């Protein structure tokens, strides 16, 4: 005859989510993720109206990200392009200028390591390397037709703010949470 063991009734082990050691780990993980989302920042090209500080445009920018401003010179009425990039300190750096006609408001001499050359009938000043934390620009009302060139997009500044108004260009730091919420503005 077979010997039968008496059955011992015990509590079943707690499911994984109820184990006491899991809750502190889960809490620390969630808090760490929230702190990272709030503290980590992403650089963004920001255009604000000077009058009231309202953001009219934002776009994520990487280190060495590039953008250009084009406009028609008010006196000799030829196009000018100013090219910028973002440095590791999250500053805008004026890198070069391209223009067709020399005249008032165009640099008259080279400084430091700047170079001048002609290419395809246009004059270029390169290696300017002027660091800018921010700059202000008054949007042209009649002739200037200011445009922002960013990642193969052409954005007329007159669509972002009224012609004649002043706007401020700056690199702002958006926390990752704001970026993930999709608060970047393109246009109004």
Low-confidence stretches: none
Strand elements, count: 12
What's the domain count?
A: 1
Beta-strand residue percentage: 35-45%
Write down the Rg: 28 Å
Q: Strand count, sense and closure of the main sheet?
A: 8 strands, antiparallel
Elements, N to C (H/E): HEEEEEEEEEEEEH
How does the overall form come out from the CA principal axes?
elongated
Q: Supply the helix-strand structural class.
A: mainly beta
- Quaternary form: single chain
Fraction of residues in helices? 10-25%
Question: What do the pLDDT scores average to?
Answer: 83
Keywords: Membrane, Transmembrane, Transmembrane helix
Organism: Paenibacillus sedimenti
Protein name: DUF1850 domain-containing protein
Transmembrane segments: 20-39
Summarize the structure.
Keywords: Membrane, Transmembrane, Transmembrane helix. This protein is mainly beta and 188 residues long.
Could you please describe the fold and organization of this structure?
There is one protein chain. With 188 residues, this protein is mainly beta. It has one domain (38-181). Helices cover 13% and strands 39% of the residues. The protein has helices at 22-39, 176-181, and strands spanning 41-49, 55-60, 66-72, 79-86, 92-99, 115-119, 122-126, 130-132, 134-138, 147-150, 153-156, 166-175. Strands 3, 4, 5, 6, 7, 8, 10 and 11 form an 8-stranded antiparallel beta sheet that branches. Strands 2-1-12-9 form a 4-stranded antiparallel beta sheet. A hairpin with a 5-residue loop joins strand 4 (79-86) and strand 5. The longest helix has 18 residues, at 22-39. It is elongated and about 110 Å long. The model has no long low-confidence stretch (mean pLDDT 83).
């Amino acid at each position: 005859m077979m010997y039968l063991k008496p059955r011992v009734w015990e509590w079943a082990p707690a499911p994984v989510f109820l184990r006491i050691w899991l809750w502190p780990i889960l809490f620390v993980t969630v808090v760490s993720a929230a702190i990272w989302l709030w503290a980590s920042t992403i650089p963004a090209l920001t255009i604000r109206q000077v009058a009231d500080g309202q953001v009219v445009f934002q776009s994520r920018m990487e280190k060495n990200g590039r953008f250009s401003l084009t406009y028609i010179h008010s006196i000799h009425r030829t196009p000018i392009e100013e090219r910028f990039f973002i440095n590791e300190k999250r500053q805008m750096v004026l890198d070069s200028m391209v223009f067709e006609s020399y005249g008032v408001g165009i640099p008259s001499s080279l400084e430091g390591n700047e170079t001048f050359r002609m290419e395809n009938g246009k004059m270029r000043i390169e290696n300017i390397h002027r660091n800018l934390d921010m700059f202000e620009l008054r949007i042209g009302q009649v002739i200037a037709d200011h445009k922002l060139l960013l990642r193969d997009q052409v954005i007329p500044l007159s669509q972002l703010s009224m012609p004649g108004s002043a706007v401020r260009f700056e690199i702002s730091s958006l926390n990752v949470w704001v970026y993930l919420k999709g608060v970047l503005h393109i246009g109004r």
